[in-house]
Design brief:
There is one protein chain. With 145 residues, the protein is an alpha+beta fold. It folds into two domains: 1-32, no CATH class; 34-139, Immunoglobulin-like (Sandwich). It has one helix spanning 12-31, and strands at 36-40, 43-49, 59-64, 67-72, 77-82, 93-97, 101-107. The strands form two sheets. It has a four-stranded antiparallel beta sheet with strand order 1-2-7-6, with no helix packed on it. A hairpin with a 2-residue loop joins strand 1 (36-40) and strand 2 (43-49). The longest helix is centred in the N-terminal third of the chain and has 20 residues, at 12-31. The chain starts with 11 loop residues before the first helix and ends in a 38-residue tail after the last strand. Its main location: cytoplasm. Keywords: Cytoplasm. It comes from Tricholomella constricta. Residues 1-32, 126-145 are annotated as: Disordered.
Length: 145
């Protein structure tokens, strides 16, 4: 990760260049993951491609307060590890779409924090650069705003 200390001393052009490099690196790291993910302030959606024809009974999925594990029965896990933040297990769900991807919907316990990554051992994104999509400023507490 780039040093934030020297960031303030950079010119506008140097900052833009660094931001562009960081975004490109971030995109490359994220696209190398075995899933795609999106988030809003209150939730995270993880989309995991699986072999075409996969059915719910073929999957081994574990969703816990701070852990997520997804795989096909009898094979290595597609993803397995500690979630970067706690979730509300009872409000989190998974579905299989078109027999070729698993959509995991995680409800964040803390609905006022952006996640840097899904699993703690995966590359992080810079949450300061997130442009909130539909979340209204009034949804945020004063400090986050």
């Amino acid at each position: 990760m780039s040093n934030t200390d020297d960031y303030d001393s950079l010119s506008k052009e140097e900052r833009e260049a660094r931001d562009k490099e960081d975004r490109a690196r971030e995109r490359a790291e994220q696209s190398a993951l075995p899933y795609k993910w999106t988030q809003e302030l209150g939730e995270v959606d993880v989309n995991i491609p699986v072999p075409k024809g996969t059915r719910a009974k073929d999957l081994a999925i574990l969703i816990q307060k701070k852990k997520l594990s997804v795989g096909l029965k009898g094979q290595d896990k597609i993803l397995d590890g500690e979630l970067c933040m706690e979730i509300k297990v009872e409000e989190s769900t998974w579905t299989i779409e078109d027999n070729q991807s698993v959509l995991i919907h995680l409800e964040k316990l803390n609905k006022e924090r952006w996640w840097e990554n899904v699993l703690t051992h995966h590359p992080k994104i810079d949450t300061r650069k997130i442009e909130p999509g539909n979340s209204k400023l009034s949804d945020l507490d004063g400090e986050t705003r």
